[in-house]
Amino acid sequence: MKLHFYKYQGAGNDFILVDNRENTVNHHNPKLITALCDRRFGIGADGMMFLQNHTDYDFEMVYYNADGQPSSMCGNGGRCIVAFAKFLGVIKNETNFLAVDGPHYAKISAEGDWVSLQMIDVDAITRDAEAYVLNTGSPHYVKIADDLKHKNVYQEGYAIRNNATYRAKGINVNFVEPTDNGYFVRTFERGVEDETYACGTGVTAVALAMAQHNNQTGHISTPIKVLGGDLNIHFNYDGRLFTDIFLEGPAVQVFEGNVEINF
What we know:
This protein is an alpha+beta fold. The protein has 2 domains: 2-119 and 251-260, Diaminopimelate Epimerase, Chain A, domain 1; 126-244, Diaminopimelate Epimerase, Chain A, domain 1 (Roll). The chain contains 4 helices and 17 strands.
């Protein structure tokens, strides 16, 4: 059968999106997902999403990592599927949708290319030696680094993700370097098992961890540069709980097409 798909990217984090409101695609198929996400032999993407109907929300986001397995929350994926929902006419400029970690509110620019996505509240940040560990919808390890431009993120990220502490469930590994007005971040993502150009839950984790690291409280806005562009995170922090967390950035349709699937 032919599968009609769309390709979106958010700060270089790229995704295959499918309108599955009619439940025409049985996506519980790791072999299919990995084949389509393969950058040499498929469409190529960091992950694949299906937009589906839901009785209580505008839509449901079903997300798979490039390894074909169901994923925890993907922030940039969430922003891209909001742009996709607007393109399809499912929503206008605001939405409440359901993802794997629960309900999310988002708003999108009139032009449809800038999305502000509310993330889950965070009430716990722990330490692993000098690193910070927290869950922003997906588990993250945040470590301050020097000369991040030249760091071997794949090698160091792979080693941390697969050490005795994190091997079983995996963790996303973020390296962060302060800049003049924010931070530069590079991320090794589990499920992709490689460095990606951006990670939405990752930059969110970095912004929260750095607020705690710097003893900041109140309303905080944190610009972050990633390999694929610029993102912004703003939130409230009372010294104990992070609330009203929003991940903001571009979400752009790259192309659409049809692919023959025989799985």
